[in-house]
Specification:
The complex is a heterodimer of chains A (551) and B (155).
Chain A (H helix, E strand, L loop, with lengths): L7 E7 L21 H9 L34 H4 L10 E4 L1 H19 L3 H10 L4 H10 L1 H7 L13 E2 L16 E3 L7 E2 H14 L19 H7 L2 H18 L3 E3 L8 E4 L12 E3 L5 E3 L12 H13 L1 H5 L5 E3 L6 E3 L6 E3 L6 E3 L24 H5 L1 H46 L8 H25 L7 H22 L3 H4 L2 H31 L12
Antiparallel strand pairs in A: 2-7, 3-4, 4-5, 6-7, 8-9, 10-11, 12-13
Helix pairs in contact in A: 3-4, 3-5, 5-6, 13-14, 14-15, 14-17, 15-17
Chain B lengths: L2 H17 L5 E5 L5 E7 L11 E7 L10 E5 L34 H13 L10 H7 L7 E7 L3
The chains are: A mainly alpha (551), B alpha+beta (155).
The structure holds zinc ion (ZN) (6 copies).
One zinc ion binds next to loops of chain A.
Protein name (chain B): Ubiquitin-conjugating enzyme/RWD-like protein
Pfam family, one (chain B): UQ_con
Keywords (chain B): Ubl conjugation pathway
Chain lengths: 551, 155
Amino acid sequence: MSSTAATSNKRIIASAGPEAAPPTPVTTASNGMDSEDDFMSAVSSGDDIQDDSDNDDMSGADDDFDFDDEPDPDLGIHKDIMQRKKVAYDISFKVYEPADIQKQQDVLIDEVNMILDISKEEAAILLRYFRWNKERLIEDYMDKPRQVLEAAGLAQVSASPPKLEVIPGFMCDICCEDEEGLQTFAIKCGHRYCADCYRHYLSQKIKEEGEAARIQCPADGCNLIIDARSLDLLVTPELRTRYHELLNRTYVEDKDQLKWCPAPDCQNAIECQVKKKDLDKVVPTVSCLCSHRFCFGCILNDHQPAPCELVKRWLKKCADDSETANWISANTKECPKCNSTIEKNGGCNHMTCRKCKHEFCWMCMGLWSEHGTSWYNCNRFEEKSGTEARDAQAKSRVSLERYLHYYNRYANHEQSARLDKDIYHKTEKKMVQLQRDSKMSWIEVQYLNSASQALQTCRQTLMWTYAFAFYLARNNQTEMFEDNQKDLEMAVESLSEMFEKPVAELQDPKLKVEIMDKTSYCNKRRVILLDDTAQNLAEGKGDRNLLALAL
Amino acid sequence: MSAQFATKRLGKELEKIHNSLPPGIELVSAENFEEWQLDIRVLDNNPLYMNQTYRLKFRFGSSYPIEPPEVVFVKLPDRAIPMHPHIYSNGIICVDLLAAQGWSPVQNVESVCMSLQSMLTGNTKNERPPGDEEFVRANRLRPRDIDFYYDDNTV
Ligand SMILES: [Zn+2]
Ligand SMILES: [Zn+2]
Ligand SMILES: [Zn+2]
Ligand SMILES: [Zn+2]
Ligand SMILES: [Zn+2]
Ligand SMILES: [Zn+2]
């Protein structure tokens, strides 16, 4: 059987062609201290504590967006007490910018280049072949250099650099061109083709197939790899850039503990040590320098406190049930009193009908006056009685109602987060104006930025607490979870309401302090909820596990 | 890439094909540089393919031969789809050679025919690929857009 013949198939997977384009690395300045990991290590390293005193002259509410919003410890307290216990949901990670990623590769290439006495191009090809496992590469190479070079597509090592040549009487086996003066090219194996065909070939591999690290000689059965130097000689700068991007990608993609930030136009990669098998116990939320927060496990937007598997199930359920659930997420409802159409235009659930001034709750349509202190009634779904459940039809209706209850609240927070953001953008514009007209400085209006970010993050968390609650087992842990959820929800709704005030009122120093305090409180409630839930997930076994019922 | 690129190369190939083709391979039609048809036969007396002729259809893109051609077996009143663990009953062929990663631009129509011919000659299994029925029912993609996962090189 000839070597070019068939190979067997196991599975068939339909795909629409080459995978989606990767982020384009562009070098940007690095300030490296933004990740929580760097922060954590700076705090815990002990000898290098940052001066905390600059926090103490403020109310502590202005910029407590991060998790570090516990009351500042007294001055003079022991350093090892300041070294706070790491909160349970916090995981460590590092953000790398394109230049960092390049540098890591260069360092490895230089090391291999020196230790093994091979060129940098060859070191790079070998490292990629060994998926950047330097130790294994060196070990294997020391042991059997010839086999290693051959396997990696570097069979014959020669010193002369690649160049374009004109060969008299040459005919290209790819395009059948044979005119005089034809530029030709070959890598070390000597399989020679015209430069045009080589360029076509490389462009096909790079552009259409997204290939870079393992582009082989075009000759049939020749597995010699085309190195970066040969490539640079042949292709356009544009293609060359793409090629190096793809090479960078293989570095990140070859390493399990590295992942690209999925934000559009972001070129950073994140390093995190969380293992796949632990994803039922931890939710590895990471945040990029670009401020995008996402789950390292599944690359979706931050979904704390819900574990990846739950998120997957929930999203699938929502997609399956989307038709039934669609009406819920609609932006308009009728006023329960006068039936005029009301559009929700802010994130708060406290609705006031413009026509009849009726005040009601957007979620349950109940009277707002009954809600003030008992938001409680609106966040918990009361299980229907057993007699009703006996009837199969009723059962399915109850289960649909149950799902809709949680979906409603999930979708509501998703939508409210969007609306809060819209309001912030409007407010931001007005604040700029006010800054110009009044004496307020840029720094003085930043509390609105902090409030907006807190609303976004907290709603994101609340949204997932409802998906989480849908799968929640009823046990003695449940109540704590629901209480935490209720506390956070109340805090968020009241901050959202303050936030919606007209700009003129926002200038009021009293309201400003209130907003700052509420912002801080929201962040604190969120930390408590995430911490309690994460601890339970990490420790919970059997019926003590919050999710014992469903997953 | 200009269509001329493929045309020039296919013109050369056609010239050579008109002169001579290996035994068991015959040109049926080549009216343009987009689609050609060829017949192949297995030369030994492998009982699976004895006295049978199979029709192959080649389709060329403008990037041929940088890109592989699309090659399928065609079912006609007097042409069946050969039985083979890498040939689906709708004529789609699962071979490394015809996929981007296995293709080399120095391959040509003749060499593809010879490889397929030899793939049949060497086969003893009277069976379709696993999952054939489901694949044939569900597949709406062109062969070039399907990702086959190759798991052995033994056939
Ligand atoms: Zn050529
Ligand atoms: Zn070669
Ligand atoms: Zn990013
Ligand atoms: Zn996840
Ligand atoms: Zn009304
Ligand atoms: Zn309500």
